[in-house]
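Section: protein folds

Sequence with per-residue tokens
===
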Amino acid sequence: MAATPVSNIMRGLSRRSAQQLRNPTSLSQRCLGARFYSSEEAPPPPLLAKLKGDLKSAMRAKDAPRLAVLRSVLSATLNASKTASPIRTDQQLVALLRKQAKTQKESVEEFRGAGREDLAEKELSQIKVLEEYAEGSGVQTVGEEELRGILEATKAELAAEGVTDKPALGEMMKRLFAPGGPLEGKDVEKAEVSRLVKEVI
């Protein structure tokens, strides 16, 4: 049997490549198959693995609110992995969930102000999913009363070291979130911590 001409093989490969270009992979498939971390880096946070697994379940169950949330969060995580600040811990991922929930709560007010209760309800259903993942993450949440106690203790430590002036704001924030610091790995918003630090000092 005669050998297949090289030109025929090349034409076949070209047709296959064109077909692949006409059928791009969906966002969900990219999120599921994307390698967020190289083999040389630390493994992805457990919560991220759960979100990717739940995306498959949400697709099968046709759970629209959960599917919308998971696609959005995984897309944001993928985008972050291409920057200098990738999401490497559950704490960072929970912060992303909280931030997205806050943004969507603002949207709820806007929709209600415009008389679009249908869109407000859609946002609320997604907020519920976001809060479910944040609260079930295992990341410790710090209440305001506990946070104030931590700030007072840190202020006392700095005073003992001779740092008593108001410019100690930056030093306090650095001390609070440093490795081994009282707020390392805790579910707190830095903006809220900064506000309370200003009150304490």
User: Anything to note?
Assistant: The mean pLDDT is 80. The chain is about 70% helix and 0% strand.
